[in-house]
Every structure is written in structure tokens, then in C-alpha cells.
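Lab notes, practical 5.
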Amino acid sequence: MKRVALFLGLALTLSAPAFAGDAKTYQVTGPVVSVTNDAITVMKGKEKWEIAKDAATKTSGEVKEGDKVTVMYRMTATSIEAKAGAAKKGGKAK
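Output from the prediction step:
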């Protein structure tokens, strides 16, 4: 019995890093304003949400303007530029 518990614990520990890199999934639902090969624009309330897509984007059926859709997406950084932090003001006088 201890071997089974040990095996399950080890399996869970080793599989955890595989899930750690997945970004949180979000969704937006509304009518399609426009759709191209590179993006879909959905009206959410009074705002237009343009979400990039590519050949790997899974789509069920043919999406056209006016269709109500739910788009699942993730926010992923494409680049990060670091800048030096500002010096703290109000340091102690000597």
C-alpha cells in the first residue's frame, strides 16, 4: 500500500510542472463585428474586443459578422523590456 501511495505522490509531483506554465484562460462573448485570417473582433457591451488568431485557433463552424460567439483566449507576453528602477526620494540626510 505504501508503494502505491509513494507512486501516486511521485506521479503528481512530476506532472505539476507541466501545468505550471499554462496561462489563465479568459473568455469574451458577443456578436462578431469583423473576422479576418489574423483576428476576430467581438462587441462586448459598448467596447470592441479585437483578439488575434492563427491557423492553430480551433473554430467550430464558419464564423461571420453578426454571429454570437464565445472566444476563449489567454494573455501571453510577446516581449518584456526591463528598465532601471527610479531612485527613492526622501532618503535620510547625513
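Observations recorded by the TA: The two ends are 68 Å apart (CA to CA). The first strand starts at residue 25 and ends at 35.
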